[in-house]
């Protein structure tokens, strides 16, 4: 089983999850600094203040990437390192860190894949409305241009946003991520302004030229009903509308799905959508990044008999929750393991939206990892998970999907947002107190996959 010549094999991280050094180099506070330092928000009060200390251990981590033979490293730029207040001229020290990162990747023959926004909004902008404000969309385009002017000659692949659904709904709708708001109206406004920020950034970067390939990353999940009952089918349609179509439709069709507009009419009049916005949002991208972790099997809730254990994921104001199908295993996050869902969603994008270059920009799983008495981390569950998902990715290729690359989440164990340091996704075990890095069995397995150009068999 081989992937095409030139296929981009990589791993990914995000700035707040790995960098640490939150008060160094002129960096300003982000919403995640504020959120994680608020009692009760993050597991055991964990914060990203130190995280993996990637900021100071950059050379060590770059050498690890080269050791594994990575062809690409997807990282995010911390907006507060570039503009501590979310506006104004670029902070030279912040740009210098990312210059060192990009130069180090180039020296090792590793392709940089740069994400401009992975959830760490400058707190100063949140204080002025955050993503519920149109002003933040405009500030984002200005910030994107600053980074592009500094690094555009060294970086080919640019991702505007990572998972705008998570930013909008977990941050502004459900309150379990920063900034911790709980308002459907705010989540809808944030959805639009995140997408508008993407569109404005595309305009700004293309105006600068330079030939960078521009895209966006969405977390997408196939959705199916838990039963043949009409109530479950309707719940599944609503979840698909919220999780997938609310983002795919404006990006690729220039409109929001009508059933979602009608469903949320009581929460918002959508007056934040102005003439020309959807034209900007739907400007062509050079590629789409897809983050895949799970399929959603949905039942109507509340009411009805229990037909299987809930995965604990509820969708606010949709009258739906996810359930675990019989016989399906779970990760340490409690997420169902259904590799074929990756092929399903990739094919759907091609057939229903647009046939364009696609990268799997995140795929991975949390495992209850530990260092055994022999000094090894024998994460056989992660190896099995990644192997199965690579086979699903290959199946999508065989069905005509223009898949160009695959990036494991994550290179390093790191700060897992509201779960703090309790969940480990990395190819490399991080012993947080000492910051010692221990490559896991999965890292060695992935290095062999890269050398072969695909999994065995």
From TrEMBL:
<dbReference type="GO" id="GO:0005829">
    <property type="term" value="C:cytosol"/>
</dbReference>
<feature type="binding site">
    <location>
        <position position="162"/>
    </location>
    <ligand>
        <name>substrate</name>
    </ligand>
</feature>
<dbReference type="InterPro" id="IPR017853">
    <property type="entry name" value="GH"/>
</dbReference>
<dbReference type="InterPro" id="IPR001360">
    <property type="entry name" value="Glyco_hydro_1"/>
</dbReference>
<feature type="binding site">
    <location>
        <position position="293"/>
    </location>
    <ligand>
        <name>substrate</name>
    </ligand>
</feature>
<keyword id="KW-0119">Carbohydrate metabolism</keyword>
<keyword id="KW-0326">Glycosidase</keyword>
<feature type="binding site">
    <location>
        <position position="17"/>
    </location>
    <ligand>
        <name>substrate</name>
    </ligand>
</feature>
<dbReference type="GO" id="GO:0030245">
    <property type="term" value="P:cellulose catabolic process"/>
</dbReference>
<feature type="active site" description="Proton donor">
    <location>
        <position position="163"/>
    </location>
</feature>
<dbReference type="Pfam" id="PF00232">
    <property type="entry name" value="Glyco_hydro_1"/>
</dbReference>
<feature type="binding site">
    <location>
        <position position="409"/>
    </location>
    <ligand>
        <name>substrate</name>
    </ligand>
</feature>
<keyword id="KW-0624">Polysaccharide degradation</keyword>
<feature type="active site" description="Nucleophile">
    <location>
        <position position="362"/>
    </location>
</feature>
<dbReference type="InterPro" id="IPR017736">
    <property type="entry name" value="Glyco_hydro_1_beta-glucosidase"/>
</dbReference>
<keyword id="KW-0136">Cellulose degradation</keyword>
<feature type="binding site">
    <location>
        <begin position="416"/>
        <end position="417"/>
    </location>
    <ligand>
        <name>substrate</name>
    </ligand>
</feature>
<dbReference type="InterPro" id="IPR033132">
    <property type="entry name" value="GH_1_N_CS"/>
</dbReference>
<protein>
    <recommendedName>
        <fullName>Beta-glucosidase</fullName>
        <ecNumber>3.2.1.21</ecNumber>
    </recommendedName>
</protein>
<comment type="similarity">
    <text>Belongs to the glycosyl hydrolase 1 family.</text>
</comment>
<keyword id="KW-0378">Hydrolase</keyword>
<dbReference type="GO" id="GO:0008422">
    <property type="term" value="F:beta-glucosidase activity"/>
</dbReference>
<feature type="binding site">
    <location>
        <position position="118"/>
    </location>
    <ligand>
        <name>substrate</name>
    </ligand>
</feature>
